[in-house]
Automatic annotation (TrEMBL):
It is a multi-pass membrane protein. It is found in: Cell inner membrane. InterPro entries: Cat_transpt, TrkH. One of its GO terms (molecular function) is metal ion binding. This is TrkH family potassium uptake protein. Its main location: membrane. It comes from Aggregatimonas sangjinii. Pfam families: TrkH. One of its GO terms (cellular component) is plasma membrane.
């Protein structure tokens, strides 16, 4: 089977064109603020628009059909094209002149990881800060469409489980499903972003800070305009509570938001993954708040007098960091690695949880953990009743065996790649906590890690090869492993 290379390059050209279009927002911001980066951003935008338009023009006579092989290539190389073109504003403005650092910051943005190499974020031009946040937002919307409309059709990582729940026709072809799904989810995504921007502005942020943090929150990215991240607003709890709310929504399957807006609230409440996702957030937050209150020191604001202020602060910081890690947003209000050894290990484990499938969060996802746990319980029953046929049920539906095997395979591959990732970082001379933390954070698209990569530090101290390796882990984790790793197999490229 020959590859339909024209449709591949046509879609990649479209992505470049869209990327250049989004750069125009950063260009306008730069011009308004007069930050000195206008020319560099303008050249980057024109370069992306020219390359994208040229690719689309050359491949205008293409077969409008995308099969599985083309789908894998488009997804992986699409993210690479976005990252390569997306680093141009950094390079052309000398904000990040080094190519390795520029690519790391960019792919961290598009994969919504939020890991940074920047030591002084507040010194960056406003146009570059907005572009940095926009890379999150673009990647976040791409992930929603990818998870809801594309991966189920490619059979990736058990995503078929909620394919039938996505709004729109259950078409076998790729294009109608993407188009119909994207229209609805785009409106929800934009609506949430606008709503959070307005609320943050009312709560006390500047409009510029509000829009940047909204772009980063809804994408579960974590890039901030401040060196201290959300800890900059520790004396304004309302701002942090607003971010908590929208991080929770961003970590929820966006299809459920669609159902909620359609008035089908019962469908949301009956969703098994959502119930466990909410339960984990509440239970873990209470536990962390209690440990922090009795065992650790947290910043107490002027918002409430003591001792009520200490309790409120413990609850807020505990809730904030639990949701930030579970949803892989990466915002921080405090250095959670310095609270207690118990919480350090606990937060490390949370890096493997992830939010809901069909959300912008990274990680393994709650849905997969539930399926694996249920299958393990059923294995005990099957051991006792060898002739019994006991189906695995999820959200009151029977799950096919091939999906269960797919999810188990995904989990094994995820853990194997994490171990290899940590070994590579360890071979580069990083200490144990830094190596395992960096690998878990990069693969799970979390952002802050442990050791020298803790929430108060960044990834700038990594050797260049370590940064490129983390880029690979971020991309593989963001695109559900199989999509990227299958391209590395000789079998994929054989003609069939």
């Amino acid at each position: 089977m020959r590859l339909n290379s024209r449709i591949i390059f046509h879609i990649l050209g479209l992505l470049l064109l869209c990327n250049g279009g989004f750069m125009l927002f950063a260009l306008l911001t730069s011009a308004i603020y007069g930050d000195g980066a206008t020319l560099g951003i303008g050249v980057a935008a024109l370069t992306a628009i020219f390359l994208g338009s040229s690719a689309m023009f050359i491949t205008r006579n293409h077969k409008k059909e995308v099969k599985r092989k083309e789908g894998y290539i488009i997804v992986t190389f699409g993210w690479l094209c976005l990252s390569i073109s997306g680093m141009l504003p950094y390079v052309f403005t000398d904000a990040i002149p080094d190519v390795t650092n520029a690519f790391f910051e960019t792919i961290s943005g598009y994969t919504t990881t939020g890991a940074s190499i920047l030591d002084d974020i507040e010194s960056l031009p406003e146009g570059i800060l907005l572009w940095r946040s926009l890379t999150h937002w673009i990647g976040g919307m791409g992930i929603i469409v990818l998870a809801i409309a594309i991966l189920p059709l490619l059979g990736i990582g058990g995503m078929q489980l909620f394919a039938a729940e996505a709004p729109g026709p259950n078409a076998d072809k790729l294009h109608p499903r993407i188009t119909d799904t994207a229209k609805r989810l785009w409106l929800i995504y934009v609506g949430y972003t606008v709503a959070e921007t307005v609320l943050l502005k009312v709560a006390g942020m500047t409009f510029f800070d509000a829009i940047n943090h909204s772009l980063a929150t809804l994408s579960t990215g974590g890039f901030s305009t401040k060196n201290a991240s959300l800890a900059y607003w520790n004396d304004q709890p309302l701002i942090q509570y607003i971010v908590i709310l929208f991080m929770f929504l961003a970590g929820t399957n966006f299809v459920l938001s669609y159902f909620a807006f359609k008035g089908k609230v019962q469908k949301v409440l009956m969703d098994e993954e959502f119930r466990f996702y909410a339960l984990f957030v509440v239970a873990f937050s209470i536990m962390v708040a209690l440990v922090v209150y009795f065992k650790a020191d947290v910043p107490v604001t002027e918002y409430h007098p003591m001792p009520y202020g200490a309790m409120e602060s413990s609850i807020r910081h505990g809730l904030f960091q639990i949701i930030a890690v579970i949803t892989t947003t990466g915002f921080v209000t405090a250095d959670f690695t310095a609270w207690t050894p118990f919480l350090t290990i606990f937060f490390f484990g949370l890096m493997f949880l992830g939010g809901s499938a069909g959300s912008t969060s990274g990680g393994i996802k709650v849905m997969r953990h539930l399926i694996i746990f249920k299958n393990a319980i059923l294995e005990f029953k099957r051991t006792l009743h060898t002739n019994a046929v006991i189906p695995l049920r999820y959200s009151n539906k029977t799950v096919k065996e091939d999906i269960v095997y797919n999810i188990i395979g995904f989990f094994v591959l995820y853990m194997l790649l994490f171990i290899i990732g940590a070994l590579v970082l360890g071979a580069l001379g990083l200490d144990f906590m830094t190596a395992v933390g960096g690998a878990a954070s990069s693969l799970g698209n979390v952002g802050p890690a442990f050791g020298s990569l803790n929430p108060l530090s960044n990834f700038n101290g990594l050797p260049d090869f370590g940064k490129w390796w983390c880029c690979f882990l971020m991309l593989a984790g963001r695109l559900e492993l199989f999509t990227v790793l299958i391209l590395l197999t000789p079998y994929f490229w054989r003609r069939t």
